[in-house]
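Check this.
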Amino acid sequence: MDDERQPPHRASVALPPSPTFERYSDPATRGRDRGDGRDGPSELGVRGPTSVASVRIATWNVNSIKQRLPRLLPWLDGRQPDVVCLQETKLADDAFIALLGHELADRGYVIALHGEPTWNGVAILSRVGLDDVATELAGAPGFPHPEARAVSADCGGIRVVSVYVPNGRAPGSEHYQYKLAWLASLRGTVAAGPEATVVCGDMNVAPTDDDVFDPDAYRGQTHVTPPEREALAELQALGLRDVVRDRWPNERVFTYWDYRAGMFHQDLGMRIDLVLASATVADRVRAAWVDRQARKGSGPSDHAPVIVDLDEAPDGDIGPVVPPPSAPAARRGRVKLPQSP
C-alpha cells in the first residue's frame, strides 16, 4: 500500500546467474534459457509450455523482500505456489538476485524482475515457464520518471501481470492523478494482450464498500473514491473477473491491515490485493483464498498473500480467509483509521 518518492531507475529484468539455473529443466516446465543473443529486458526469459494444468498462482505485497526473507522462503516451501507475483520488493534487480537467486533456483523458480532500490519493485517467480518478459506499460506516466511498478510474462500459457498500483496519497493531488493515469495505461496494455490473462497485485483500490471494514472510516481517503473504482471497473470491463469475490460474493475478506492500532487483530482491514482473470482462466478456478496465516506472527508484511488454484485445489476449497478471523465485524462509525485526525 505504501507509496513514496524515489529516484529515477531504468527498468530491467534479471534471472539467477548461476550454473544451477542454466541447467534447470523441471519435467513440468522444460524451461530453458532463450539464449538468442538479443539484448534488453523483454528479450530475457525461460521458455515454457504452451499450457499447464493444475497451477497455483499467488500474489503478495511483501513490503520489502529483504525484511520478509525469513518468512518468504518457508511460505514458498509450505504453500508450493507455481507462479508468484510479488510487489514492493524494494530492491534493485542485482541485489534481489544476490539475495534470493540461488534459493529460488534451488526451488525450481525462474524469475522476472523490475526493481529499484528502496521503493516499489515487482517480480514474477515461475515453475511453469517464463517467456516474453516485459517491464513497461504502453504510455505509462512517470512521477516524473518511470517507476518499477509492473512486470509481465507468459507462464504456462497464461499472460501473468504483476502490478503495484500507485497509492494516490490524497484525492485530487498530483499523486492521485498519476494513479488514475497509471491505471489507464494498465488497461491499455492488458487490452492489447492475449485473452488468457491474469492481473495480480496490490491495486491500491478497494472495489466496493464491502471490501473495507467500514466505509465511513474511509471518507475523504484514497482507495475508495469513485474515480479510482471507475478506473478499476474499466480494467475489469475488458473481461477480467475478480476471482476471490466471484467465489465468495458475500464474505468478509480483507488482504491489508495497517500495522498500527491493532488493526489486524481486530480485522479492521480492506481488500486491495486482487487476482483479476480473463474468462478462460477464471473458469478453471477451483479455490481462491487469502492466506491470513502469513500475516500473523513476528515480522509480517502488512498484506496477506492471495492464492488461486486452477484445475485442482490441493488444500480443497478452503477459503475465503485461512484461518478465518475471530474478531466480529466492526460496527459502522465506531473505529477511525490510525491516520485520521
In short: Confidence is low (pLDDT under 50) at residues 4-46. Residues 19-322 form a domain with the Deoxyribonuclease I; Chain A fold (CATH 3.60.10.10). The CA atoms of residues 97 and 157 lie 25 Å apart.
